[in-house]
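To illustrate the input format used throughout this study, we show a single complete record. The first block contains the structure-token representation of the backbone; no residue identities are included at this stage. The design step must infer an amino acid for every position from geometry alone.
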């Protein structure tokens, strides 16, 4: 079977088709609305079929791992290294009705979350973009993503395009949100099935399995959120996917067919709206590294100045929303983004210890309170952490350069070190080029140990479990495993999944060790790809 994707403006469709070495021109008559739709033509058993693309709009955005910069990344000019992953959130968008609704002021909106068994319906005003909802199961991240994306469309499109936008919106919208299993804890399901805690058991679960909820109420002491998560930034990935799907569907950006320069400009647009929606939904202006990673993929990140969004928080109740969003889009976004990825032959792994996750906002609040109460001590710890974070970044860059300049030596060292514990690495080599690479590896390990030490000190001083004792024991065992370069608690720390960087093919060693210690190795790996459009509903794969 072959297929082509075309844009249709009128009811007559002509296309050039080549199949099995034979070419022909076919003409199809199809009914279309006054606005442009994307259609798919399929050939099957010698006949042509015209099919509207699934959902009309499907976008996905990745989860993240903040390897360095926890807490420090909240303040400029401190940097953080954030890695995007292959765990992705999807937003599937389609019109609710085939015909335009007669009411020109209110549109219908439905938001589905199959993994939580939730369906929420809204009425949205096209005059001031307010949402009316009678349901208790509301998702503020999706709500603000919808409001701000539609307001952005009205703020940027000209009068002619606004007329088409109005017709499109009057069909209503249905948004389905889906998160890959790795965003959530599924230990209970695996154990209920009598399966071992291995990646293979996790892979045996159906995609987008129903979500596990934490028992009891959330509080600062146990730092657990309502849903048992692994700490990959589900709200940021979800918000970004919804914003990207909407902006692309409404014709504000084009994330599919444009040049690199144009795509960068469109990604910047998605970033500004997603950051704003995510911050307003949280009720505070965070560092934004999670949204930045969801949009752009892996990189070195320095946050934007908070006032670019906080000014919108102050005026949103007194000005029309499309004017507020217009000002946000014109604001000075001074975040910094530098390309970064792990050196060659190094693999990111995550292990979920089964503690139910941690609530980042409550932990950040505790650290800020400690900073105010002990300025001198907190600044000393802050400076040491910043120096260590910069040193680890420099060490990774050195290893990437050594790989580029001395590939054969680099490959030989990595492969050899992947088969034994770090204490034996230095004694395996005598050639100067090999020794230089081993010293760089050991240097990275030592710096990571320093980072962990400073993070523990910060947690103890602030009275929160940044690297609690159970995680310390797990990380020590992890770093003592054959082929493991380093390990740590990502981001704000706590009881979320731990991360490790393993050399070459040593990942299997670590997953076995983790399983013996009741830790579930996730299927997550680094994937530098940021937000993107998808051709189909991921459930159809």
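Output of the design step:
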């Amino acid at each position: 079977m072959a297929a082509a994707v075309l844009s249709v403006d009128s009811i007559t469709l002509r296309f050039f088709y080549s199949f099995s070495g034979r070419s022909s021109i076919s003409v199809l008559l199809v009914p279309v609305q006054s606005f442009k739709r994307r259609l798919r033509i399929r050939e099957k058993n010698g006949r042509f079929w015209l099919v509207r693309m699934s959902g009309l709009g499907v976008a996905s955005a990745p989860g993240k791992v903040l390897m360095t910069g926890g807490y420090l990344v909240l303040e400029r000019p401190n940097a953080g290294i954030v890695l995007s992953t292959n765990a992705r959130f999807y937003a599937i968008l389609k019109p609710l009705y085939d015909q335009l609704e007669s009411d020109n002021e209110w549109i219908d909106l439905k938001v589905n979350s199959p993994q939580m068994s939730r369906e929420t319906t809204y009425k949205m005003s096209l005059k001031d973009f307010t949402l009316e909802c009678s349901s208790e199961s509301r998702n503020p991240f999706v709500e603000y993503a919808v409001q701000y994306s539609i307001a952005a469309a009205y703020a940027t499109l000209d009068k002619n395009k606004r007329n088409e936008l109005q017709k499109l919106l009057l069909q209503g919208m249905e948004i389905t949100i889906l998160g890959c299993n790795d965003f959530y804890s599924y230990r209970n399901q695996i154990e209920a099935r009598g399966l071992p805690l291995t990646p293979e058991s996790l892979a045996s679960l159906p995609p987008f399995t129903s979500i596990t909820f934490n028992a009891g109420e959330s509080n600062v002491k146990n730092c657990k959120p309502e849903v048992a998560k692994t700490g990959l930034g589900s709200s940021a990935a979800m918000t970004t996917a919804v914003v990207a799907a909407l902006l692309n569907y409404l014709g504000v950006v084009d994330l599919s067919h444009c040049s690199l320069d144009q795509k960068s400009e469109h990604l910047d647009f998605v970033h500004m709206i997603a950051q704003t929606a995510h911050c307003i939904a949280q009720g505070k202006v965070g560092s934004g590294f999670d949204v930045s990673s969801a949009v752009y993929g892996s990189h070195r990140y320095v946050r934007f100045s908070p006032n670019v969004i906080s000014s919108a928080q102050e005026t949103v109740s007194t000005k029309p929303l499309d004017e507020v969003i217009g000002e946000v889009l014109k604001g000075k976004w001074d975040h910094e983004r530098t390309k970064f990825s792990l050196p060659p032959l190094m693999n990111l792994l995550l292990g979920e210890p089964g503690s139910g996750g941690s609530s980042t906002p409550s932990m950040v609040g505790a650290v800020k309170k400690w900073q105010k109460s002990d300025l001198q001590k907190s600044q000393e710890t802050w400076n040491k952490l910043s120096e260590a974070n910069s040193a680890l970044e420099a060490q990774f860059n050195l290893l990437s350069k050594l790989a580029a300049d001395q590939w054969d030596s680099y490959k030989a060292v990595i492969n050899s070190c992947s088969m034994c514990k770090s204490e034996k690495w230095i004694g395996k080599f005598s050639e100067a080029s090999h020794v230089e690479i081993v010293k760089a590896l050991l240097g990275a390990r030592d710096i990571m140990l320093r980072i962990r030490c400073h993070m523990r000190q910060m947690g103890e001083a602030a009275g929160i479990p940044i690297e609690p004792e159970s995680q310390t024991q797990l990380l020590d065992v992890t770093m003592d495993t054959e082929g493991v370069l380093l390990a740590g608690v990502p981001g704000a720390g706590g009881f979320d999944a731990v991360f490790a960087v393993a050399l070459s093919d040593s990942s299997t060693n670590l997953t076995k060790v983790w399983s013996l210690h009741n830790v579930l190795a996730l299927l997550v790996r680094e994937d530098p790809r940021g937000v993107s459009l998808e051709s189909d509903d991921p459930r159809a794969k």
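Structural context for interpreting the output: Residues 75 and 303 are 7 Å apart (CA to CA). The radius of gyration is 25 Å.
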